[in-house]
Amino acid sequence: MTLAATELAFRAASVALLLVLAASLLSDFRKVLAARLGAAFALGSAAHAASYSIGVSSLVPAWHAPLIALSTGNIVVFWLFTRALFDDEFRLQSWHGLIWAAVTAFSLVGCLWIAPGGNTRFSVIAVDLIVLGFIALAVVQTIASWSADLVERRRNVRVFIVCAAALYGGLNAVLQIAVAGSEVGDVANTINAGVLACIVAAIAYAMMRVDGADLFPMSTSAPAILAQPGRADESADRKLIDALMRLMADERIYRQENITIGVLAGRLKIPEYRLRRLINQQLGYRNFSVFLNNHRIEEAKAALADPAQAAVPVITIAMDAGFQSLGPFNRAFKAVTGVTPTEYRRLKVNAV
User: Fold this and answer.
1) What global pTM score does this model have?
2) CB count, 10 Å around CB of 253?
3) What gap in Å lies between CA 48 and CA 78, rounded to an integer?
């Protein structure tokens, strides 16, 4: 088999796997934002697999340019995908779409006008610096949010997906900058296509090993996993859960600024992994932040319903309960109760 045929086979395999993955996510989890963004990322990656080559000449065929532009814009989708995958409170905003459109448009302009105008190196370097920037944002998001995930296998799969995609994208961006404006041999492009096919296959395999409902939960505003009865150490777990609830109810430890699961595990004198498992399997939470916020919201609900605190500003109640700002409090409160804090207070006052 020739190098050209081998490269084509690798590209076709990657595109086929990515299209199947996108169809599967949309079919099973189309109501979940992270899954929809995952499907969009898979489709953009298919465009990348079909169009990408190491080394760029100044002349790009007109039909090829839109694929390259979509491939470039896909880095914004990747960043949004990691946001939704690790942040349960993340919601798409109109400015997210504007960023994607700007990056995609710049890549298209670079293919059709900037590079043909004799500025190939500038165009390639500018695009790849943008790519590296969004990869850095995605990695930072992963690091910041990873510890809050309480489902062990899902945590590992999520990190693998982000790291594999970021490593591949980052290395390609650096390589493109190094060879900007020049052609490379067929061997390099064949190797790159093979590496991409292997990464896509590994990600698809990793996702199949985790229950879809765990990877993309349908709801994150309340516990969704029932405690598992009949375990040999159930009595010890029960004592730990009681101790945890005392920390929450009596000491209101959730009020502490930047409280982490590591700090909480230290107070209980148990390993972090065990506390993670207890909150997930015994209390039914998938995310540590949701666990904390539910306790904070319960305190806020009591304060908002108290006639003696009718004059206390909502932001003061939110800060006293442990929230750092009003926006996240309003979103979390409405996700749990279905109404805003102000509406909740008015309903309770009118009911008296």
Assistant:
1) 0.78
2) 18
3) 13
Q: Which of 250, 309, 311, 240 is nearest to 279 (CA)?
A: 240
Instruction: Provide the H-helix boundaries in 110-233.
Output: 120-145, 152-178, 186-208, 212-215
Token pair in block for residue 192: 């790159």
pLDDT digits (tens, 9 = 90+) for 208-230: 777 776 677 655 444 544 444 44
Residue 195 burial (CB count, 10 A): 15
Q: What residue has token string 């061997």? A: 187
Kind and range of the H or E element at 84? helix 65-86
CA angle 93, 96, 97 (to 5 degrees): 100
Q: CA triplet 112, 118, 121: central angle to 5 degrees? A: 90
Neighbours of 273 (CB within 10 A): 11
More confident residue, 267 or 59: 267
Alpha helix positions (H), 250-271: 261-268
Interatomic CA distance for residues 340 and 119, integer angstroms? 53
Amino acid letter for position 265: A
Q: What is the distance between the alpha carbons of residues 150 and 44, in angstroms, rounded to a whole number?
A: 30
Condensed to tens digits (0 to 9), the pLDDT of residues 120-139 reads 888 888 998 999 999 999 98
Residue 149, beta-bridge partner list: 287
